[in-house]
Structure to design on (250 residues):
């Protein structure tokens, strides 16, 4: 928030029902830009429940408290889906797209058709045969790696990084597969037993007769911006999908 002159500051944080859960008394603040630090606890010192919260900044210059407009400026790090509605993630803050006052893409142009296009898939069910696995903070995001077989077969699963370097090979005998959807867990370790680096990975599943399909289908719950590219986030599996690899939309 910005102050045009010195003022006593009070910040109220409310939950999704509009109930005040925390009041922060920031004291006298000078003119200029300021940030707010909240530790996620309520007025009793207890951790608040997971969910969405709003904050309001009030300033008193000697004539009573009035609301101070607050702004967030920064790069969109992703899109999250909460209570049926998409929000942009900027500096850890969720923003309603309808509240934006200015948008500039990385090339300096106003607006972004690609972003608008990606937002259109939020809440829709999509399918793809090219799921992307995200490793973040050393952990594999989402559920097991899935693949389909017509019958029981020996399979070799190979996991590659974004530079097409093989990092992990997993082999399964036919006795451990089924003639339908199969799932295998990857713990994020390489063939050497060390943790792989954070980033994007993909996998192939080879049998003696060719490559098995690795389909993914589900509701889109958000958008991830990684390496200057946009990826749709699957709600149930945690897989990422590039818009260009989609095979269906409902």
């Amino acid at each position: 928030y910005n102050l045009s002159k010195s003022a006593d500051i009070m910040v109220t944080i409310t939950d999704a029902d509009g109930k005040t859960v925390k009041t922060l008394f920031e004291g006298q603040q000078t003119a200029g830009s300021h940030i707010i630090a909240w530790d996620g606890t309520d007025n009793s010192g207890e951790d608040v429940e997971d969910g969405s919260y709003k904050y309001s900044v009030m300033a008193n210059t000697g004539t009573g408290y009035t609301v101070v407009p607050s702004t967030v400026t920064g790069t969109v790090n992703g899109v999250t889906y909460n209570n049926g509605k998409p929000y942009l993630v900027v500096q850890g803050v969720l923003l309603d797209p309808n509240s934006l006052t200015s948008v500039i893409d990385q090339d300096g142009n106003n607006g972004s058709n690609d972003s608008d296009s990606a937002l259109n898939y939020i809440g829709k069910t999509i399918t793809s045969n090219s799921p992307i696995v995200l490793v973040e903070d050393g952990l594999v995001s989402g559920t097991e790696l899935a693949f389909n077989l017509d019958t029981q077969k020996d399979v070799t699963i190979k996991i590659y990084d974004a530079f097409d370097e093989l990092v992990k090979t997993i082999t399964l005998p036919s006795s451990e597969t089924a003639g339908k959807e199969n799932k295998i867990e990857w713990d994020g370790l390489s063939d050497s037993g060390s943790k792989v680096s954070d980033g994007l990975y993909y996998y192939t599943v080879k049998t003696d007769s060719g490559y098995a399909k690795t389909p993914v289908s589900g509701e889109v719950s958000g958008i991830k911006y990684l390496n200057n590219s946009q990826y749709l986030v699957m709600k149930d599996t945690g897989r990422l999908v590039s818009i260009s690899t989609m095979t269906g939309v409902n």
User: Anything to note?
Assistant: Helices lie at 113-119. The two ends are 41 Å apart (CA to CA). DSSP finds one helix and 22 strands in the chain.
